[in-house]
Amino acid sequence: MKQQTFSDIEYSNRRKKTKRDEFLEIMNEIIPWEEWVALIKPYYFDGRRGRPPLGIEKMLRMYLLQIWFTLSDEGVEDAIYDSYAMRKFMGIDFMQEQVPDATTLLHFRRLIEESGLGKAFFDAINRCLTECGHMMKGGTIIDATLISAPSSTKNASGSRDPEMKQTKKGNEWHFGMKCHTGVDAGTGYIHSIEATAANVHDITEAAKLIRPDDEVVYGDAGYLGLDRRPEIIEDPHKSQIDYRIAQRPGKKRSMAKGPARDWYCRIEYQKASVRAKVEHAFHIIKNTFGFNKVCYRGIAKNLNRLYMLATSANLLMCARSGGWRSRPA
Fold it and tell me: How many domains does the chain have?
């Protein structure tokens, strides 16, 4: 057991825990640290040249703090010095060591991005959720959400990000990227993610979000005609799926009042009640973790961040439901 410092004793006597403290305690307990460290180890620096590398787990914890609280490399370094909750999560004792600097975190983040480890973490957690029985099979909700990007050209290159595009939603124009997501219809856990420019239509990425064991797929009116797409018709499994896609609002207005309209409204209400689960996943990614605007230029880096946030969102939803207590050793 780690020896307590005077700061630990003083902080333990507080009357109330902050939401940040509670969140970090939950994530510290639910994340399988040994498994994640083992995934990073083959790609980590061997230490044969230069100064000895810092511990993998310590750098991973710092990287997670950065993406959870939407901080820059310098910002997360300062935040750890300033916040006792973050320092406790990192396991740093200032009597023995200091916080890794921003440059060290930058190199670690690039290692994660270039090695594709974000998707590896995402797949590993989903396998664990499936084996534990927390993630159900047979149904998927598909949806997409826009993530804004800076539209200003006041930068070093004098241009906007060439991989980001603009699209019109309602009466407003949006510039950025689009996150296409497949969510388990039974539990709301995220099982598939794709990222494209904002002008790519939702329906073009839908086939990539469907699992091999899905029997029913839910989607909003933007996916009307999905069952007639070539990639669906030509696939023996996907062509047999029951696509429960919401109808456009105009269809209800065109129907005369009566039993037929009442039955139609009831069916649409049941579809919407299932599709609402995907909005909770988007809420965690965009509001709880603050990823409503891209952090980097290019699709690939932001997709890696989305994988890490989706992994964290699944863990957070599992923790809130009490499912983390049944995680196998």
Answer: 2
Q: Are 238 and 211 in contact (CB under 8 A)?
A: no
Q: Where are the alpha helices (DSSP H) in the chain?
A: 6-12, 19-30, 33-40, 56-68, 73-82, 84-90, 102-115, 117-131, 230-233, 249-254, 259-283, 299-320
Residue 174 DSSP SS3: strand
Residue 309 near residue 181 (C-beta atoms within 8 A): no
Of the CA atoms within 13 Å of residue 286, those in its CB half-sphere come to 15
How large is the C-alpha radius of gyration of the chain? Answer: 22
Concatenating the DSSP letter of every residue in 243-259 gives EEEPPPHHHHHHSPSSH
Whether residue 144 is contained in a domain is answered as: yes
C-alpha to C-alpha distance for 64 and 289, rounded to whole angstroms: 11
Q: Do the domain assignments include residue 122?
A: no
Task: State whether residue 86 is helix, strand or coil.
Answer: helix
Name residue, tokens 């664990």: 128
Range of the domain at 144: 137-296
CA-to-CA dists, residue 280 to 51, 96, 104, 188, angstroms? 44, 42, 34, 8
Which CATH number characterizes residue 196's domain?
3.30.420
Residues in the chain: 329
pTM to 2 decimals? 0.90
Residue 19 lies in a domain: yes
Dihedrals phi, psi of 324, to nearest 5 degrees: -65, -20
pLDDT tens string 181-227: 999 999 999 999 999 999 999 999 999 999 999 999 999 999 999 99
